[in-house]
């Protein structure tokens, strides 16, 4: 795949890849461009390029001719040389978004919505999310998907399926609903097993029973078997029993974990397999930790000066050593690791992503964690004073266990 470039002018922001949040009503910050808009648009309306005229027109999720939305109107009215937001932040104090929820192109011309279109033949296109009730981050995906393509009937009879299907050669014999992978040597479909990489990943479920050519399989969609007794809403995984699914995630080192859908009811499942199976040794993070321990992706590095367990670290751009992070200045962020080993020196163990426990902590479960203004510390109170920096680095799983997954995007408070 070739490179894709974002063109336009970065109107607002500072060095280091930051884009500041708009500080006043009806302002934007980010990458902008200019173009001819017709008919008239108001601030924040979603626009697409008309394939015939090259002008910007209002986007609408009702049909393909008015999709996808690629910019938001900054200047109001119609005409040439109108300013448009390609990617970045936008503020309108009349908005009442739900912070953190995704934004989509609406079926109302030019509007955005946090209710994902769900009507047959409408189009769905995520275009960003709400930072606050009045500020959004606009970063549209390049394509809109028609709901007709992914609408599957859930009203099934026993031992039937609805969705994307295919036919294939299966060996050995299978029963309805068994989990299948493609044999890399023969190209035939065989039973999966989460015990080894050679029997993963799952890519289909058997619809027809038995073995042989031209057997029908389900690639994505719904399946019903009245002998099942799933827990509705819980995730389905490939089992360590050949051909079976399970709602108990494999946990033994050397096993593989692959989510393949969820139970809609006790007898109906939604099959939508992820494309990869993860080796638990490499990617399974155990939350059942002892005090002052961590589990996840680790590395080793030189730490100076001395750090204590759980302190936030950044990489010094001059020495390459890990030093204590803090949110007071651009020179002391971003946080990229937490100290596991204490003290200073070479070959210190560091947590790059995963869980960490310290029984001396007293976090509020579920709330985000940020780099603190205190050197090396974390906090659940986001910095808010001019000149300070906000970097989210994870969240509290319990009062004493955190999940560390630092973003590489930070905001300077203006």
Relative strand content: 35-45%
Task: Tell me the number of structural domains.
Answer: 3
Mind telling me the C-alpha Rg? 26 Å
- Major sheet size, sense and barrel closure: 10 strands, antiparallel
Total strand count, please? 34
Based on the model shown, name its key terms.
single chain, about 425 residues, mainly beta, 3 domains, 10-stranded antiparallel sheet, 9-stranded antiparallel sheet, 34 strands, flat, disordered N terminus
Descriptive notes:
- The protein is mainly beta and 414 residues long.
- It has three domains: 9-147; 160-280; 293-412.
- 1% of the residues lie in helices and 43% in strands.
- The protein is built from one helix and 34 strands.
- The protein has one helix at 280-283, and strands spanning 9-10, 27-41, 46-49, 56-58, 71-73, 77-91, 102-105, 112-113, 123-124, 126-130, 135-138, 145-146, 160-174, 179-182, 189-191, 204-206, 210-224, 235-238, 245-246, 256-257, 259-263, 268-271, 278-279, 293-307, 312-315, 322-324, 337-339, 343-357, 368-371, 378-379, 389-390, 392-396, 401-404, 411-412.
- The strands form six sheets. Strands 1, 2, 3, 4, 5, 6, 7, 8, 10 and 11 form a ten-stranded antiparallel β-sheet that branches.
- A hairpin with a 4-residue loop joins β21 (259-263) and β22.
Can you lay out the helices and strands and say which pair or pack?
Elements: E1 9-10, E2 27-41, E3 46-49, E4 56-58, E5 71-73, E6 77-91, E7 102-105, E8 112-113, E9 123-124, E10 126-130, E11 135-138, E12 145-146, E13 160-174, E14 179-182, E15 189-191, E16 204-206, E17 210-224, E18 235-238, E19 245-246, E20 256-257, E21 259-263, E22 268-271, E23 278-279, H1 280-283, E24 293-307, E25 312-315, E26 322-324, E27 337-339, E28 343-357, E29 368-371, E30 378-379, E31 389-390, E32 392-396, E33 401-404, E34 411-412
Antiparallel strand pairs: 1-2, 2-6, 3-4, 3-5, 5-6, 6-11, 7-8, 7-10, 9-12, 10-11, 13-17, 14-15, 14-16, 16-17, 17-22, 18-19, 18-21, 20-23, 21-22, 24-28, 25-26, 25-27, 27-28, 28-33, 29-30, 29-32, 31-34, 32-33
